[in-house]
Design goal:
The complex is a heterotrimer of chains A (530), B (402) and C (512). Chain B is α+β, with helices and mostly antiparallel strands. Chain B is built from 9 helices and 19 strands. Chain B has 3 domains: 133 residues, 2-Layer Sandwich (Gyrase A, domain 2); 110 residues, 2-Layer Sandwich (Alpha-Beta Plaits), CATH 3.30.70; 98 residues, Elongation Factor Tu (Ef-tu), domain 3. Classes of the chains: A alpha/beta (530), B alpha+beta (402), C alpha/beta (512).
């Protein structure tokens, strides 16, 4: 039987589609297989209730690499991001809360209501972070150097990273160590005093992880907020028009335009392995498709333990992959609303709600939410990141009605009763979220037409994210860089020849960045694997 | 969104061009008319009135107020007498300028400081264990600059202050019809002029009183564009344009010391310790990296370039704030500095600029090449380095009554 | 006018070490101590008439052998034992296991309740043995000067050598070290062991003095550092070390003044060190001063405002030194046994959740009523510390906040004492009614008595950034931006605990 495809990509999430697009663009014959009926993986838009379209999982686009947009000509294929201007922190009891705007003076005045010092230090803080974001960019845009190796190529890539360090200067180098290791709350304490500012800033370090804002190692994610400036893509935080699935669709359209073939409802059972080499895939319905290489866009756990299977793996590798920590910690609650959920009636207009709304009035609030989760319960008063994208993109809901998307943390996958108990807790979890929101939007109950609750269990069962981890694995230092997913296989390769990886479980990690898909494709082409 | 100053009800009536800009988070009129020359000429011939409320304003009080300011400013504020004012800059430990502004002494333990950037955090961080209180008056006080030869007469007609004896860089309290305010003989035009500081609630009363008194003295509203022309002629540097605060600069090349900004005259190294003193002593010993100079741009050269294209010479409307390369006199491949702001001087009838020049080329009289773009082509014209003060009329310092 | 070559501030083990080494090299040295006794937190105290502790801290396992040799401390009566003291890990269920220096014996006693853990312990020790050379190399040498501004070939070579040493581990061990170092101690030990109280007890030293709980990332680094550096112990505890150091110092010619509190470090007009001014006004001159007190105390309290640069002041003030340790000393009128054993050192913890919950309240400036304990019964080996047949039980209590929202009133301290007694009652039934005297020291008391900023026993948290560039980049190699001022205390590399390492490396730096 002749091999029909150069590459089969398992999983039609944005990374898989980007990988396919790059390979197809280089003239390779590519097939993408998606288990679900829709493309996008966790970057998906679905009309969950008639007339209401949700970004079901991932809901904002932030770090999507601008060069991928340029190289794949994604705008032509429908990539359209509506920038977010505001970031709002409501307070209960009708307080004005804190809104941070793109307009620096306006933000300064808002912050000054709580702390005059903080309002001015905010700019100095941005300066330091912008400096250090240079390093983060270097890390994100290149494959991770292999520390264990002594070949000159690897050394030169280490050296390049070292040079960026060198250019930081001693104080910034020191700061970089702090940033990489400290907790986001401690790091922000170096500058700020007001809780309402530190609260929402600190949570950016814990999104998607099973860590608290006082957990060491959470500070460096703060950098991501400053990366946009280096990309020359200011205001890079935004909504994808038509929901986050729009990004995936643009990637899919690009891939198709280069000749890639994409099939949905195509559930891959496992990778076909012959003599330690991947030769294609076997579908759940028994069909077999051959290819020269296979690229798995699934998380490391699924890729190694289901797609490959323990019998093809060295026990030491199996042990390593079992050490890989997933520990999903978040859920999602999507509301279809009959009207605007006003988080602050004292404010004029609704502009303050057109970005994200963070329910985290202070640092202790979110730390206490974490404490509860540590012992196997979902937080009764969780950190909630809310967006009402229909305020900026009216196509998402019927006229006058709105979709409200709530990212909720903490909802630990491994609850006391065991993860399979989650379906029984689902509505209770939804209620806790609605109750929390009610403290800010007293009339929320009367606005709710429908509610969709997505627990970590659902993320695993429906979206294939093991343990419900939205980043396909925790973003802690021992699982980053040359150790993502495991050391020795951090460069998108696996112990099985011709089986590659491209998902968020590879360097540089999660979020809608597209880097895994891009860097893996470039490496595949570079090494002339096909 | 910028907010309105307490004078906005009046300034918005006058602003026929609708040309507003964001200055420190406030709406500020760029130019009240489409043609702004007349606003500039008001500074030089009669009186121009500028809303300078967006300056950041602080009251510093307490037993150690003088000690504190002396520690953080490059000038010895201990020496400032009650009602005296001084123009000053302040540095970080590396001797790099953080900001510049005016320090006024209103009482035994009461000082008033203006700044270009928000400075509350910087000042309060440095208070330490001293008995000092810092109050931010930016949003509670309005400020007007009344600048020009007839400004003294206007004020004399509307308040009780003894303006005939008020000297350059001194201040006075003033009473007018039902309200009080402070007058300082300071400004940003290099001309005879005053700045008036008033509580928000009395702002409109002050404005109206001045405007009415000014009717006989050809008072005009003046915007930021006109002010820019005047301050460049006077050789006054601007934070954020001619230099960057060391708190915001990203690399050392973007930071400047007082010596490098031409503000060395205000530094007294041989006194009680102050912030940056050690570094500035080093600089004094080892030399500066560059200097801030005035550039006198050769007009015939420019004229000739236009003639070549069959065009009459052209000058920009008003002042510009952008970086323009300055080259070695012999070689246009050797850049020795850059201009940071410049203007066609309506009074002097020539193009002038403020520039940062490598120290070896900063001596007055040095000839350099200045880049110009004529009919889409980059050329250079000759220019002469000089002191950054092109215009300095006697009336600026004149006192009528001893 | 110059009275001394150098003045050492603080007569703890590090101050004494620095002073003695310098005096032996012929320097004219004055050591000034604020309290009326030497020793700082290594000093034994009579906390109840006739009852003595052997130090606020009691772990002498990290004391550096080369200091003992260099200062000939054994000549001055020090009994140095070349292995770690036994320590018993207690479980509230009545189980216990004694961690002995002999790992086979330890493994055998673990095997009594878990075969898996007996093997895991051997693997764990194996791993520690493999990495200990690298870790001790880091701890025993001054930190490499990573001045990126003028990264020279020489410094690159030094760095490369360190890197190669890391490589010398063998690829597998190196990758494992890089993998586990950033992990939380709970994740690290959960991968290896199954028995809760054993894991808790092994993890405990990583958490002493830290603002962290078992599930805090990077706590494994502290565990590895502690395990590798703990190689010995001193008979008689910290006070015995101080006794020997004092004799050595006197013999070397160090002038020692106790009850001499430095009020201020005095500078020349040029900004260089002139000397110190004592409380009462006496000024003593020397062109060098070495401070063994905390960096925060040194720079923020012994200088006037503006005497030091803003940047220095900023970074020093940002050192994290949130005290989390308290002390309860008990005078008991009987021989105290724990879980029926006559032991000197013991740890409690029970399981990671309990330890985690002991830390949780600290974040909110609250205090747990179920802390975990680091217990020392010095009378088990030295009966002279209490009346015949009586015991001293000296307990370091974790985690107890310095910035307790309620304030450290007498009532709050009594509550703490009561909580500790209740826990001890589990392991030693009847102890409560045998207590004759009790001293309770809150972190605030540590600060008061020992001038420990925020009551932090290590002069600053042992956290990655504060270990790599300890205390701050500008003071990396014991010297400071103030000409003539050195740091020689636990705030400097390699950190706190009774090791004498900062003191001896500072002395070397001063002599250079």
């Amino acid at each position: 039987m002749s091999t029909k495809y150069d590459a089969i990509i398992i999983g039609g999430g944005h990374n898989g589609l980007i990988n396919a697009a790059y390979l197809a663009k280089a003239g390779r014959k590519v097939l993408v297989l998606e288990k679900r009926h829709v493309l996008g993986g966790a970057a998906v838009s679905e009309e969950v209730f008639p007339g209401f379209t949700f970004s079901v999982c991932s809901y904002v686009v932030s770090l999507f690499r601008p060069h991928i947009i340029r190289e794949l000509d994604l705008v032509k294929h429908g990539y359209n991001i509506i920038p977010m201007d505001a970031s709002f922190q409501p307070l209960p009891d009708g307080d004005l809360g804190l809104c941070r705007w793109g307009d620096a003076s306006r933000s300064r005045r808002e912050i000054a209501r709580f702390s005059k010092k903080d309002s001015e230090v905010y700019g100095e803080f941005s300066k330091v972070m912008t400096h250090m974001a240079k390093f983060a960019k270097e890390v994100i845009d290149h494959p991770a150097p292999d520390v264990a190796s002594i070949n000159p190529k690897e050394l030169s890539s280490l050296l390049r990273m070292g040079k960026v360090f060198k250019n930081l200067g001693p104080e910034l180098l020191h700061m970089n160590t702090k940033l990489l290791t400290m907790s986001s709350a401690d790091f922000l304490d170096l500058w700020f005093e007001s809780e309402i500012l530190k609260g929402p800033m600190s949570v950016s370090g814990i999104i998607g992880t099973f860590l608290g804002v006082r957990s060491p190692g959470t500070a460096y994610v703060l950098l991501h907020h400053y990366m946009g400036e280096l990309d020359g893509a200011f205001r890079s935080w935004g909504f994808s028009k038509g929901g986050t699935g729009g990004v995936s669709m643009a990637c899919a359209n690009a891939a198709k335009s280069f000749g890639a073939e994409i099939r949905t409802n195509a559930n891959v059972a496992h990778v076909k392995i012959k003599n330690g080499q991947a030769t294609g895939v076997v579908l759940a319905n028994g069909d077999e498709i051959d290819s020269k290489i296979v690229v798995s866009n699934l998380d490391p756990n699924r890729t190694y333990l289901k797609m490959i299977g323990e019998k093809h793996l060295d026990p030491e590798i199996t042990a390593e992959i079992k050490r890989y920590k997933l520990r999903g910690s978040s859920g999602k609650v999507n509301f279809a609303l009959s009207g605007v959920p006003n988080f602050c009636k004292k404010r004029e207009g609704l502009d303050f709600m057109k970005g994200d709304i963070a329910v985290v009035p202070n640092v202790d609030y979110v730390e206490r939410a974490f404490d509860q989760a540590k012992y196997g319960e979902f937080s009764e008063r969780p950190y909630i990141n809310i967006v009402v994208p229909s305020l900026t993109d009216p196509t998402l809901a019927p006229p006058g009605k709105h979709v409200m998307s709530c990212f909720v943390q903490y909802a630990p996958y491994d609850i006391k009763e065991g993860p399979e108990y989650w379906p029984k807790l689902s509505e209770k979890f939804g209620d806790a979220v609605q109750e929390t929101i009610k403290e800010y939007v007293p009339d929320i109950d009367s606005l709710v037409e429908h509610r969709q609750v997505i627990t970590p269990w659902d993320l695993q069962e429906t979206f294939g994210l093991t343990e419900g981890n939205i980043f396909q694995g925790e973003l802690t230092l021992e699982q980053l860089l040359f150790q993502r997913p495991i050391s020795g296989y951090a460069k998108y390769k696996t112990p099985i020849k011709n089986l590659w990886m491209s998902g968020s479980g590879t360097h540089p990690g999660g979020g809608i960045m597209g880097s895994g898909g891009e860097l893996s494709a470039k490496l595949i082409l570079n090494e002339r694997a096909i | 969104m910028p907010i309105e100053t307490p004078f906005h009800p009046r300034t918005s009536e006058h602003n026929k061009s609708l040309d507003w800009k964001d200055w420190g988070g406030y709406f500020a009129a760029n130019s009240y008319n489409v043609v702004n020359d007349f606003e500039y000429f008001a500074f030089r011939n009669s009186a121009g009135l500028v809303d300078v409320t967006p300056l950041f304003k602080y009251r510093v009080t307490g037993k150690d107020a003088a000690k504190f300011l002396t520690r953080i400013m490059v000038k010895d504020i201990n020496k400032l007498k009650i009602n005296q004012a001084t123009y000053c800059c302040w540095c970080d430990d590396r001797g790099m300028v953080v900001d510049d502004g005016t320090v006024m002494r209103f009482g035994e333990q009461e000082y008033f400081v203006t700044a270009a950037d928000p400075s509350y955090s910087w000042f309060s961080r440095l208070v330490k264990r001293l008995d000092v209180q810092i109050e931010d008056l930016t949003d509670s006080y309005g400020a007007l600059a009344l600048q020009g030869p007839t400004s003294r007469d206007i004020l004399k007609n509307m308040c009780d202050a003894d303006l005939d004896s008020l000297k350059f860089f001194w201040t006075s309290s003033a009473k007018a019809d039902g309200f009080e305010f402070k007058i300082s003989r300071t400004g940003y035009t290099g001309d005879l002029g005053y700045e008036l500081w008033v509580r928000n609630e009395d702002a409109l009363k002050l404005f109206d009183a001045i405007w009415e008194a000014g009717q006989h003295y050809n008072i005009r509203m003046a915007g930021i564009k006109a002010l820019d022309i005047a301050r460049i002629e006077a050789g006054l540097v601007m934070n954020g344009v001619d230099y960057h605060s060391s708190l915001h600069a990203l690399i050392p090349e973007q930071m400047s010391t007082p010596y490098e900004l031409g503000l060395g005259w205000m530094v007294n190294l041989e006194r009680d310790p102050f912030m940056g003193q050690r570094a500035l002593k080093e600089e004094k010993k080892n030399g500066s990296r560059w200097a801030t100079v005035g550039i006198d741009i050769n007009w015939p050269d420019l004229e000739a370039l236009y003639y070549k294209h069959g065009l009459p010479p052209h000058t920009e409307n008003g002042a510009w704030r952008r970086s323009i390369p300055i080259y070695h006199k012999q070689s246009r491949s050797k850049q020795i500095g850059y201009a940071t702001s410049g203007t066609w001087s309506p009074s002097l009838k020539k193009n002038i600029a403020l520039a940062t020049i490598e120290i070896d080329y900063a001596d007055p009289g040095t000839e350099v090449n200045f880049e110009v773009t004529v009919e889409h082509q980059r050329k250079a014209v000759r220019a002469i380095v000089g002191k950054p003060q092109f215009f300095n009329p006697k009336r600026k310092r004149s006192v009528l009554k001893k | 006018m110059k009275n001394y070559d150098i003045i050492i501030i603080g007569g703890g083990h590090n101050g004494l070490t620095t002073a003695t080494i310098l005096a032996k090299k012929g320097k004219k040295v004055l050591l000034v101590e604020k309290r009326n006794v030497l020793g700082g937190i290594a000093a034994g105290e009579e906390f109840h008439p006739g009852y003595f502790t052997s130090g606020l801290l009691h772990d002498t396992s990290g004391v550096r052998q080369d200091v003992i040799k260099e200062l000939q401390l054994e000549k001055y009566g020090l009994e140095f034992l070349n292995e770690r003291a036994d320590v018993t890990i207690l479980s509230s269920s009545g189980k216990h296991v004694t961690i002995k220096a002999d790992e086979n014996a330890t493994s055998a006693s673990i095997a009594k309740f878990s075969q898996k853990d007996a093997q895991a312990y051997k693997d764990y020790k194996d791993f520690l043995n493999k990495i200990s050379r690298v870790i001790n190399d880091l701890m025993d040498n001054p930190p490499p000067n990573i001045n990126v501004d003028n990264l020279t070939m020489a410094s690159l070579v030094v760095l490369a050598k360190k890197g190669l040493k890391l490589k010398g581990l063998g690829n597998k061990t190196m990758m494992e070290l890089l993998k586990v170092a950033p992990m939380s101690v709970a994740d690290f030990l959960d991968e290896k062991f199954e028995t809760d109280f054993l894991k808790a007890g092994l993890a405990a030293p990583a958490l002493y003095g830290s603002y962290a709980a078992p599930r805090s990332a990077y706590s494994t680094i502290n565990l590895l550092l502690w395990e590798c550096a703990s190689r010995n112990h001193i008979k008689g505890g910290p006070q015995a070390l101080i006794n020997a150091l004092e004799k050595a110092a006197t013999a070397a010619g160090v002038t020692i003044r106790t009850s001499a509190e430095v009020e201020k470090i005095v500078l020349e007009e040029s900004g260089s060190i002139k000397g110190v001014r004592l409380k009462g006004g006496e000024e003593i001159y020397a062109s060098k001063v070495a401070a063994s007190c905390t960096p925060k105390e040194t720079f923020l309290n012994l200088f006037d405002d503006f005497e030091i640069d803003y940047e220095l002041d900023f970074w020093i003030s940002k050192i994290r030194s949130r005290g989390t340790t308290a002390k309860v000393n008990l005078a008991v009128n009987k021989i105290v046994e724990l879980n029926g054993q006559n032991i000197e050192y013991a740890r409690t913890g029970n399981n990671f959740n309990e330890m985690e919950k002991a830390f949780d309240p600290v974040k909110y400036k609250e205090a747990t009523s179920n802390p975990f304990l680091d217990i020392h019964i010095p009378t088990a080996t030295d009966s002279s510390l209490a009346p015949e047949g009586h015991s001293v039980v000296s307990v370091l209590v974790h985690h107890i906040p310095y910035d307790f929202a309620e304030g450290w009133s007498e009532a709050a301290k009594n509550k703490l004492g009561e909580d500790v007694l209740n826990i001890l009652e589990i392991y030693s039934p009847g102890i409560k009614k045998s207590v004759e005297g009790m001293e309770i020291l809150s972190p605030e008391d540590f600060e008061q008595r020992y001038t420990l900023t925020e009551g932090h026993i290590y002069h600053g948290e042992h956290f990655v950034d504060q270990l790599i560039t300890r205390p701050i980049p500008a003071c990396l190699s014991y010297s400071t931006p103030v000409n003539g001022l050195y740091l020689c205390g636990s705030g400097s590399h390699p950190g706190g605990g009774i090791t004498c390492a900062p003191g001896s490396m500072a002395a070397a730096a001063i002599l250079k």
